[in-house]
Amino acid sequence: MLPDEDAELVASCRAGDLSAFETLVKKHQTRMFTLAFRVLGNQEDAGEVVQDAFVSAYRGLGKFRGDAAFTTWLTTITVNLARNRLQQMVSRRSREVCSLDDPIPGCGECNKANDPPSAGPSALELLEREEIRQRVQGCINGLEPGFREALVLRDVEEYSYGEIGTMLSLAEGTVKSRIARAREAIRACLKRVVGEF
Amino acid sequence: MDHDSIRHMLSEYLDGAVTPAEKLLIETHLKECCDCRNALRELEKTIHHVRNLGEVEPPPWLAVKVMARVREEAGRKKGVLRRLLLVPLRWRVSVEAVALVFLSVTGYLVYQNVSSEMKQIVPLSGVIREESAPSVPPPAESPKVPEARAPQVKRPPAATEGKQGAGPAPLTLPEEPFSDSRQEEFEPLLPSPAESPLMAEDRGMDDYRMQERSSAKSASPPAELSFPEKEQRAPSGIVRKKALPSTGVEVLRLEIIVADADSAQRKIEREAARYGGIIVRKDAHLAGERGLVVQLQRKAVHGFIEQLKQLGSVRGAVSEAPEGTPVVEMYLAVTTGQE
Question: By a Cβ cutoff of 8 Å, what residues of chain A touch chain B?
């Protein structure tokens, strides 16, 4: 489906066509859910954030000027809501927040990073498994919220630095720095978790 | 550019976000630095792992829940829009203010109108007078009766001094007497020929009060036009709704002495109806005395009085009425006594 189709659907929504908005929801829900899940680290919160994001988008259709793609606008809403939710989560477990060098909270497997590398399957084989994916997600979860958003938007959603800066209201240099530090942190985390790359 | 700076730029280098000069410097450094080459390789793998995390399928209920909330939101928005757009608050307040002012002004005007009319309604005084013309002055060309010749009743001494007074005064009949044979020429005075005097009794006193209202505003009638005091004290008469249209009414007062006042009254009513007259008022008094006010066409008066004479002894006098007065109003005092 082309971006122009999104614009047409948005126009239909503005005219009161709820089925058009339902089409938009079905089209973008997977991407938004993935984004929210990568940022938040759990499906329950991701589901609630995505619901809020779509409802907010429906309320704000009148403000959507079409300067950017609908997906970019929707992603911005989702990321902002995910950030708010993440801050609430962080504040709830503020004592559990640790530095990037600490064991990853909420990831039992990741906490085995301090253990010596096992003599099992190679790292490449592990990465191909779902288990490794969970560990990568665990490493992402260990990032601070601002770094997490930037990393997900860049490496999961593949937005440009400029787009990410617009979405997060950050300077492009800040975005580059955050992404670089986040990648470095993930690399270090994965090295600890799965051993040698 | 030193080693640490190159290490920090490796992320941007992988994204192709460095300038050509920075790219040249980085690549030159990588050829010389083994640690940076290892770091670059690990960073590539890290990005690869993150990008290959793949999509996460949302729960199947997600779209359903989203649309349920969106429909609820749409309904709420539509309701709010309907309230706000159709009846904006400032418009509604304005409309209510205008309506309030309109109702107030209308109510005030209605009150003024009703109040002025209520002031014109006076209590029934028991005085029966001729039905006056409209209170506005008559046109100049209309014949105006001088005050000296205004309709008046010269009551006989018997009427003012009671039955114990002198003998019956000579009865002056209206002009143009005629016999009963001309009765068919009478123009009925009743609104409807089928309407009997008894039907007229069913009507309320309000109509009479309304008639009295206009005449009360005019000058008080001469004393000669007033009826006996006892009649004024007992204004229990029933009136006809419509009086005779006339500019002046000749008033004739008669006293009929009969053996049975009730029976005589009924007969008088029948005769009045037969002669096309109107029972304007009926009074019942103590001691069996009855009072009737009857309006008749002048030409029917003679025959009517002849019928009264058959009921009993008739006494009374007729005033000098203005010429051409078409209607004669007769006050009939029916008393019980020796004929």
Answer: 16, 18, 21-22, 25-26, 29-31, 33-34, 37-38, 43, 46-47, 50-51, 54-55, 58-59, 127, 132-133, 136-137, 140, 151, 154-156, 158, 161, 176, 179-180, 183-184, 186-187, 190-191, 197
Query: Strands across the sheet with B290-297, in order?
Result: B278-284, B290-297, B327-336, B249-258, B313-318
Decide: B22 and B9 in contact? Cβ < 8 Å. Answer: yes
> Between A26, A47, A161, which is nearest B59 by CB?
A47
Token reading at A105: 């909270």
**Sign of the CA dihedral running B126, B128, B133, B138:** negative
Distance from C-alpha of B272 to C-alpha of B305, rounded to nearest angstrom = 10
pTM of the model: 0.48
- A54 within 8 A of B70, measured Cβ to Cβ: yes
- What is the nearest CA distance from A188 to chain B, expressed in angstroms? 9
Tens digits of residue pLDDT in B185-239: 444 444 444 443 444 444 434 444 444 444 444 433 333 333 444 444 434 344 4
| ipTM score of complex | 0.79
Are the Cβ atoms of A16 and B74 closer than 8 angstroms? yes
Instruction: Classify each residue of B297-306 as buried b or exposed e, where b means 16 or more C-beta atoms within 10 Å of its C-beta.
Output: bbbbbbbbbe
Distance CA B281, CA B234 (A): 12
Is the distance from CB of A156 to CB of B53 less than 8 angstroms? yes
Rounded to an integer, what distance in angstroms lies between the CA atom of residue B269 and that of residue B242?
Answer: 17
Find the Cα–Cα–Cα–Cα dihedral B110, B113, B115, B119, rounded to 10°.
-160
Q: Do residues B3 and B37 make contact, with C-beta atoms less than 8 angstroms apart?
A: no
pLDDT digits 0-9 by tens, B62-118: 999 999 999 988 887 766 666 666 666 667 788 888 999 999 999 999 988 887 766
